[in-house]
Amino acid sequence: MSRLPRRTCLAWMAGAALPLRAQPAAAGVTAFVDVRLLPMDERPRLLEGQTLLVRAGRIEAIGPGLPVPEGALRIEGQGRLCLSPALADMHMHSDSAEDMAVYLSHGVTTALNMGGARSRFLQRTLPALNEGRLPGPRVHAAFTVDGVPDHGHFQLRTPAQAEALVELAQLNGYRFIKAYNGLAPEVFAALAQACRRRGLPLLGHGVSRVRLARQLEAGQVLVAHLEEFFYTFFAAPGEAQTDTPPDDARIPAAVALLRAHPGAAVVADLVTYEAIAAQIGRPERLAEWLADPAAATLAPADRLAWRASPYVAKNARLQARLAFLGRLARALAEAGVPLLAGTDSPTIAGLFPGLSLHRNLRLLERAGLSRWQALASATREPGLFLSRQLGEPPAGQLLPGARADLILSEASPLDDLSTLERPLGVMAGGRWFDAAALAALRRGVAERYRAVAA
Predict the structure, then answer these.
(1) Domains of the chain: which residue ranges?
(2) pLDDT (tens digit, 9 = 90+) per residue, 232-267?
(3) Which terminus of the chain faces fewer neighbouring Cβ atoms within 10 Å, N or C?
(4) How many CB atoms lie within 10 A of CB 311?
């Protein structure tokens, strides 16, 4: 995790002499006029010649030729620019204001921190983000709990401890509990019960001694990685992992498991497994990533961690297993199982905040998902999931009353997903950042890191 000097972080929080403060909320209305609209509602469609009005952070009205209130900020689509929902990364580990600005600059306006966030981020940065006082996505945080010390997480050893742990997490602003690999079965069961009593949704990895089927039966609402199916569904307990993927004939059983638990979702993070596979036995790959221009906005501590990536020393060939995960993702999508885009950035080398989410969309398309299905994993489905689990207002779709999180692009993502990598502007909770402002966010972070390193 990135750790800047305290005076730097305080200056950021105060917004003193910085170009990276959140744009002020519009006093009146923002109007997107004569745009092509991709609503991401129940079916793929593109609406031509639309006007969309935003007031007080929400979409107020949509329609052709709507009157624009006098004094509104007017953004012209010229009949060709496309307006679509902004993006969500539903598995990340960033916990700095700098990373949040970078996420926003790449069109990410919703994020789920899947564990490891420092208390300062939870108590200071996250509220400032969610109230619009800092530029970045709206962030929800999960508290990670394990049964062993191996991975550096908080430990839960007995069922009697579960209630207090969930209560403490809720008190400190966590919205989810994340179960990790080493929990004992009886402790996991107590944790699931405590989560239900406290109203904190349970998500997580496949727990080795519990396994995914029992976890979903106990109420777990999200599988944190596609690869968890390798370890706690396809493999028998204690079975060693090899480079050979499971037989495709077993994919329908995984689909049936998820369909038996309506509302349960899976993080479709092909980019995570791809990054791991790409660096095994290849230290030169780390050097390539660190020489990438995007590394200018990578936190100094993350740069150091990437250089020491433990995956480089491993000996495996994971390409066949990666291809299998793509086929699994496609089967889940075709069956209507909710897929949520995620990246695990920046804890794994090669996963740049924001950029890796766009890479994940391309990998989902390459795996056989339609562009609409791939985009839904980063827009519509996260919005529905957060509404279902947390009671969040509508997001991830363009409809009246939804949170005004938008991307303006040159082309329709249904024609080319890569158009979202070059946004003409992003609106986050009703605050508009044009292309120049987005570039300024990245430039400000890069300059700050250079100053710290000097």
Answers:
(1) 87-395
(2) 999 999 899 999 999 999 999 999 999 999 999 999
(3) C
(4) 20
